[in-house]
Specification:
By secondary structure, the chain is of the alpha/beta class. The chain has one domain: Beta Polymerase, domain 2, CATH 3.30.460.10. About 45% of the residues lie in helices and about 20% in strands. The protein has five helices and five strands. It has a five-stranded mixed sheet with strand order 1-5-2-3-4, with helices on both faces. Strand 3, helix 3 and strand 4 form a beta-alpha-beta unit. Helix 2 packs across helix 3.
């Protein structure tokens, strides 16, 4: 399956109703790359915005890192404080995000229905398309 990439996705939606979301995602990518550098393996957009629904209510991201970053609670708190909270106040866009290490992703792939949705509808924003790789 040929996956949509971020630049192609942005061209197909134009600005209009999605302008704020596109800007917020661009800023999130810059911040995530600055924070994690080469440890950031992949970032994918999924959910209603990835399906280009004008009725989207948040921006869903899947982040894959090389190594485990710590507890889900601590990682969520840290990213909310350092990156996504700021983007909400600046753009009025709410982010929902999942963060897995590469090993966690490989373990959950094929078992977690949400990852099936990401594989089907996801837009590769940055890095490797881990869904294109053969599992296991």
């Amino acid at each position: 399956m040929k996956r949509s990439k971020w630049a192609d996705f942005k061209r197909t939606v134009g600005d209009g109703d999605f302008e704020s979301a596109l800007c917020a995602v661009d800023e999130a990518l810059v911040s995530l790359r600055r924070k994690y550098g080469p440890a950031l393996v992949s970032v994918m957009l999924f959910g209603s915005l990835a399906r280009k629904s004008r009725a989207y209510d948040d921006i869903d991201l899947l982040l894959i890192t090389e190594e485990n970053l710590g507890s889900t609670h601590e990682v969520t708190k840290e990213l909310s404080q350092e990156i996504f909270g700021h983007l909400f106040w600046e753009h009025g866009e709410l982010f929902s995000f999942l963060v897995y290490s590469r090993a966690q992703f490989e373990e959950l792939r094929g078992q977690l229905p949400l990852l099936d949705e990401v594989e089907r509808d996801g837009v590769l924003l940055y890095g490797q398309d881990l869904f294109a790789e053969t599992p296991g």
